[in-house]
Design a protein that fits this description.
With 350 residues, the chain is an alpha+beta fold. The chain contains 11 helices and 13 strands.
């Protein structure tokens, strides 16, 4: 990166420090397994910082975010730093480096970020850049725009000191080649692949944080649907769909089949439900109910999961199908993982 930076986070130093931190992070068995079915049944109102993210493996991302929050840093810096971790993890095939490519073999990344003042930035179909969330933040802070896409987003990133990186790892390339053989280049096979990945506790990272000033920010990052049609973009970089923050009310983000989230403006719907008095979990359930209504008989074959946080520090989650997990870290407690309640009580049989 160039020496002149738009904010205080030194990304090169962060990558070195968080790689070591992740390697040394030890999790309790209860945190990994997620004994509880619903956090809202367990958690009281939180006084102090907290971070919540989609999927159990992101306890490591939460730990990185917590380093910022516990030292008095902002929620905005925390979510960016937290999302950096899976973006740089070649073993995470749903985000950043090592993300599964589109059907043409290109890894394209989507990300967005939103702060407590309503400022937001996003990048869509960005190639060759390790940290799309950092580029999204620069879009927010250095331009008059909200979204940059494709070659324009790449040009902007390069002009701001980011370096080109080969994001297609040998493992992801192998998976793509195998998909080509199995699917005969048919993108209609794609939903089956993404549902298997989601069932295995693995997909987009959405992260929400509240800092010591009770200010809320959020971030979302993904490599998108595996083996998607070239140019496909889901909900993750769309403010109001994959992420929304209203500092007077709360915030929400999601994971799963992005097209379904876009159709109901998922994150915004949840925040507005909380504005009307619903708890975070009930607000998430309302959004899921709209997905169920829209999809009818096929709804039980679509996994979507939402997490939400309100201004009082209450947390909630809900999903269409079982096994949606989310990670939480807050003051005075060890890292925790929970599984949300779901509309359906089991996955459909193959």
């Amino acid at each position: 990166m160039k020496d002149e930076k738009p904010h205080s986070l030194d990304r090169r130093q962060f990558l070195a420090s968080t790689t070591l931190a992740a390697a040394g992070l030890l999790l309790t068995q209860s945190a990994c397994e997620g004994e509880a079915s619903s956090l809202t049944a367990k958690a009281d109102t939180v006084s102090g910082p907290l971070v919540i993210s989609t999927w159990a493996p992101n306890v490591k991302a939460n730990a990185a975010a917590w380093e910022v929050l516990s030292s008095g840093g902002s929620a905005l810096d925390a979510v960016e730093r937290g999302v950096f971790l899976p973006e740089a993890d070649p073993e995470d095939t749903s985000v950043g480096l090592g993300g599964l490519p589109d059907r043409d073999g290109n890894v394209t990344l989507d990300a967005c970020i939103m702060d407590h003042r309503g400022n937001c930035g996003a990048v869509l179909a960005l190639e060759h850049i390790l940290h799309p969330i950092a580029v999204a933040r620069l879009v927010m802070e250095k331009t008059a725009h909200v979204m940059l896409a494709g070659s324009g987003a790449l040009k902007f990133a390069l002009e701001n000191g980011f370096e080109k990186v080969n994001l297609l790892t040998p493992g992801s390339e192998k998976a793509w080649v195998e998909w080509l053989e199995e699917s005969e280049y048919d993108p209609s096979i794609t939903p089956e692949k993404i549902m298997q990945r989601i069932k295995e506790n693995h997909d987009t990272i959405g992260m929400l944080a509240m800092d010591q000033n009770s200010d809320i920010s959020g971030a979302c990052s993904t490599s998108g649907m595996a083996f998607k049609l070239s140019g496909r973009v889901g909900d993750s970089p769309i403010i109001g769909a994959g992420l929304f923050v209203d500092n007077e009310v709360g915030a929400a983000t999601g994971t799963g089949v992005g097209e379904e989230v876009v159709r109901i403006c998922g994150a915004h719907t949840i925040v507005e439900q909380m504005r009307g008095g619903k708890s975070p979990e009930d607000a998430c359930k309302e959004a899921i109910s709209r997905i169920i209504k829209h999809n009818g008989d096929k709804a039980n074959r679509l996994q979507v999961g939402f997490i939400a946080l309100n201004k009082a520090g209450k947390i909630g989650a809900y999903s269409t199908l079982p096994e949606f997990s989310y990670a939480v870290q807050q003051s005075g407690k060890p890292p925790e993982v929970f599984k949300s309640d779901s509309w359906f009580d089991k996955w459909p049989e193959d």
